[in-house]
UniProtKB/TrEMBL annotation:
Pfam families: GAF, SpoIIE. It comes from the Bacteria. Residues 391-604 form the PPM-type phosphatase domain. This is Serine phosphatase RsbU (Regulator of sigma subunit). Residues 36-182, 210-371 form the GAF domain. Keywords: Hydrolase. GO terms for molecular function: phosphatase activity. InterPro entries: Bact_Sigma-Reg (IPR052016), GAF (IPR003018), GAF-like_dom_sf (IPR029016), PPM-type-like_dom_sf (IPR036457), PPM-type_phosphatase-like_dom (IPR001932).
Amino acid sequence: MTDGSPATARPPVAPPAALADPERLRALADTGLEAAPDEAFDRFARLVSDLLDVPVALVSLVSADRQFFPGAVGLPEPWSERRQTPLSHSFCQHVVDVEAPMVLPDARLYPRVRHNPAIEDLGVVAYAGVPLTDLSGRVLGALCAIDSKPRAWTAAQLRTLADLAAACSSELRLRIALDGAQEARRRVVQAHERLELLAGVSETLAGTLDVGTALHRLAAAMVPLLADWCLLTLIGPTGLPREVVSVHRDPARTADVGRFGELLRTGLRPESIIRTVLRTGQPRLGGVASLADVTRGTTIPEMTSIAGRLGIASYLCVPVRGVGGTVLGAITLVNGAQRQQFDDRDLLTAVEIGRRAGQAVGNSSMYGEQRHVAEVLQHSMLPRLPVVGQLELAARYQPAADRVEVGGDWYDAFVQPDGDVIVAIGDVAGHDIEAAATMGQLRNLVRGNAFGRPDTVGALMSNLDGAIRGLRLPIAATATLVRICPQVAGVHEVTWSNAGHPPALVVRVGGAVEALNATPEPLLGLTRPSPRTSQSTSLATGDTLLLYTDGLIERRDRSIDEGFAELVGRLTGADKLPLDELCDLLLASIRHREDDTALLAVRAR
């Protein structure tokens, strides 16, 4: 087997049109596979080689210009190292083209492939290839068995190859589904970040009726979260800049950015970016920018040298509009070379910020509405606790970082149609905003899985495990699920199921603290199903049930057992504290916020 060309050169044949199908290529890209070994697909190749007794077996995926092998066994060098060949050497492209198995006892006898260089270069004589498909039936490649001598393929061998191809297709579909889930999560995270920023902007503007103070606060909110530096410009009666607020992320550049803002009021040409936006009311996006953009827009050379020190590689400029659409000013955001370039989504976010800033500057009567919008956006991150006559509920959530509104820790409480109360708490693997999308999925799954169902909490947790696996959600989380059966007068029945979560605590009347310990059960979202159990206790009038996440007890400088013991000690004798005061006291005891913390307290009345 050589790396040369066949002895009889023939004109190149155009690849089948099916190879260039955009939907097929998109599905192929979504597998995330490349010309590199992948253990799962190498395993399929080994199975084909062993079960069909062939020297070469391939999981071959065919793009518009090549075929590559995430799974391969028996390939000669240099192909074994390259894990790919051009289409000139591809038999599998014909499987994609005809969307059916191709079985060749001796490839040298078939006009379609007898001049294929793979016969000489790779020793492909006998070939059997079965399509590998996505969920829509698009053929992405082939699972193929290859022999270097003629071979009569038996029906049993072809049946085995077809069965293995079906399993291999399932693995490909799983990779595509995971890629789709990750992309959806990325979009949710980005959307959440923008909502979080807009909520913060609204709150910032709602904090004062003084225009100057509002502009300074707005600039501080956008830098460095959205840009390296920014300029907020308001125009006077003549339409020229009257007031400029400028902020840079680097405190060492405060004097430079302040001087730039001072010169901007009188040093802009009519064709400059900012004056163009002020005049036309149309936003501008410079995905790629340089000092030449500053030079063209200013009459003062000093501004160019200052911009060089501040850094400019990308910019966007949006109008600040008042009531009726009147342009009141402009917001200019600038990023240096070390930061990602602005794109259309950043522009849309900035336009919305400009709209909200315009409302605050131009119409004070809408100020209260802006604050209401901000509060709704913020409080929508966490559920509203139900009102239950026989129970008092209180909850708290504290992120690990001040700028993150919601993370992977969560709690929930809702009333069933039969009057029972479901309370839950959990902790999704990961930190900060990256875990927020997964947290939202899990919280909604808990509600959808439990509401209206009389099943035990252990059965509900088992169903939740099944939903996570069945929907192929990338969730790994601890959680505790509790059902409380309120009684009008007397003892409330409590059942709980714990999936790897810190044990709940009960503060009894009189101050004793009881831990709801049980045999540890695995986390939610593990690949293998695990039976879930239900445990029971009771709440008498005045007893308090406390659910919490590990941020309340875990520290780097001590073991979790020490943190748990400290929490028990803090709760001992705390039965007479009002519930809200108890929650605030527990959060205040956290000296260093190393992790998100959520807690939910329920007191029997």
